[in-house]
Write a structure and sequence with these properties.
Layout lengths: L1 H28 L2 H5 L1 H78 L14
């Protein structure tokens, strides 16, 4: 049994030695900033700037989509406004023509009504006394 134990112990020692080599290799390849915590800070700053860049790109994409949507929808409104303007112009023109045709008659009728006063008592007043 001692041979098995010593073989198991030797395997564990070899694994520990290999793990120490890997750790030493990682430490020697890591930048000096890592040892002082500045490497982590640099990575956080890089991540923030990358995230801000992605946010700006997404915002620009959504603004472009909104402008395209707005342009498509507003073109329908412009057409409706033009149609309404044409209808209003036609109605104004019709009113002006009617005013030219019968304007003198209307003025004369208004003057006649104003000048020919026919006083009448209100309907609720008793005039028999």
């Amino acid at each position: 049994m001692s041979a098995q134990n010593s073989a198991g112990i030797q395997i564990l020692r070899d694994a520990e030695t290999e793990a120490q080599k890997i750790v030493q290799k990682g430490i020697s390849q890591a930048p000096q900033l890592c040892l002082r915590g500045e490497y982590r800070t640099k990575r956080v700053k890089d991540a923030r700037s990358e995230a801000q860049k992605e946010i700006d790109e997404y915002r620009q994409q959504k603004e472009d989509e909104f402008k395209k949507f707005e342009k498509e929808k507003s073109s329908g409104n412009k057409k409706a406004e033009e149609d309404a303007g044409k209808d209003a112009d036609a109605q104004v023109k019709g009113i002006k023509e009617a005013g030219k045709k019968s304007g003198d008659e209307i003025v004369e009728e208004l003057l006649r009504i104003v000048m020919e006063v026919k006083p009448e008592p209100p309907k609720g007043v008793d005039t028999s006394s």
